[in-house]
Amino acid sequence: MDIVILGAGFSGLSAAYHLQQLGLECEVYEKEERVGGVCRTEIKEGYTFDHCGHLLHFRDSGIRKLIQNLIGDQLSNHTRQAWIFSKGVYTRYPFQSNLYGLPKEVIEECLLGFIEARNTKHEARSTNFEDWIYAHFGKGIAKHFMIPYNRKLWTVPPRELTTDWMGRFVPQVSLKEILHGSLIDSKTQLGYNVTFDYPKRGGIESVALALARKVQGIHTQKKAIRILLSSRYGRKQRGAHHKIRFEGGFDREFKTLISTIPLPELIRKVEGVPERVRKAAENLRHTSILNLCFVIDRPKVSEKHWVYVPEERFPFYRIGFPSNFSPYSTPKGTSSITVEVSYRRRKPTSVVDRVLKGLREMDLIKRGDKILFHHVIPIPYAYVIYDQHYKPSMKIIQGYLKGKGIHSIGRFGGWQYTSIEDVILEGKETAEKITLNR
Ligand SMILES: Cc1cc2nc3c(=O)[nH]c(=O)nc-3n(C[C@H](O)[C@H](O)[C@H](O)COP(=O)(O)OP(=O)(O)OC[C@H]3O[C@@H](n4cnc5c(N)ncnc54)[C@H](O)[C@@H]3O)c2cc1C
Known about the structure:
Shape: globular
CATH topology of the largest domain: FAD/NAD(P)-binding domain
Helix content: 25-40%
CATH superfamily of the largest domain: FAD/NAD(P)-binding domain
Structural class: alpha/beta
Distance between the termini: 13 Å
Number of domains: 3
CATH architecture of the largest domain: 3-Layer(bba) Sandwich
CATH class of the largest domain: Alpha Beta
Radius of gyration: 23 Å
Bound molecules: flavin-adenine dinucleotide
Largest sheet: 7 strands, mixed
């Protein structure tokens, strides 16, 4: 067995599942006690909390079928109830096509800015995300939502970001849609995630568990600490074996490695990695998240699924309501709220008090409500930052790994902004590529 997979998140599980379906043997090594990676779920005192909010959006019929075959009757379909809280009011998502309800002067600023942007000649290609925002949405929408929200989410000013990550994630609108959404409370939904599926019980981890049950040879609590590449490796000696060293001193030989662990960590583990590759990996930046989960002694604190919070005075950028994804996630008579706080390098301090102050201001926690308990889940890797160093650094690293027979895939292995479906597909495609080359 010469194929090793590092990491049992969705990308590693999918690669293993598809390799085994294609008749190849492989083994998966995961450092945590459980599979699922960032899609693990904590169940505490009867309350279900995903490590961070995870909903299933299918665009690929093959992946939809795979998941439905695994846990079809356990999935519920929902129509998104996504909102924004700003200027003391809740408006519908996306901000740009749902200005109705905001103060009149804000609506006027957004509309005039949008019209002005349409009538201004911009450079053919916006070089950074901030310029792109001004060119496509104008000054008002930039000021009241796009700039502050993205600054909070990405932890860096949008000027430092390129537009390479945006794809389906930033819905664009026409003047007609903006005008329509300024005059009436429009219920027309826009964007890629209008409906979603979510498991009835067990949170998002139940999907990862269902996939893991179809995979042979998963070893948990096995943390890779070093990768030793055989110096004999080369075109003439494709049979040469490399080695992975795991914490505790156990070594495992491999010819082909599928790594789904964060790319900069992978590079740090490879012995004798060239200086230019090591430096390129040091240039890669990412955000981390604290996911704060609160349990309140009152049912239905909100009818919504999630709320984006752009204003700087709130320390969080998004709030979710697990009770509204599945009635089984919260015992009767109570509610749960999750709050995402983004940061880079230094963990925020006194965050619980600041978050609670914000939730009270948003009227989600009312006078007299009792917080039964709270729980904080750290997400060390959340979003990779697409800055000016991203593309050149990735080119150097990918070129190096390709020459070593290492496939680094997934959200953090491939260092990209991808969904569960995207990484399941990537795992499948990697398995097919490896099978073809045998
Ligand atoms: C805040 C947030 C919200 C998201 N929301 C959604 C959503 O609503 N819908 C959606 O479709 N997608 C969403 N995503 C994206 C989705 O989570 C990812 O695309 C997907 O889960 C990534 O899976 P992965 O296997 O690539 O990575 P991971 O899940 O990170 O798996 C990597 C695995 O490698 C293991 N590992 C790390 N180091 C080692 C080591 N040294 N040795 C052995 N094992 C190791 C880790 O423990 C982990 O299990 C969201 C992501 C984030 C961060």
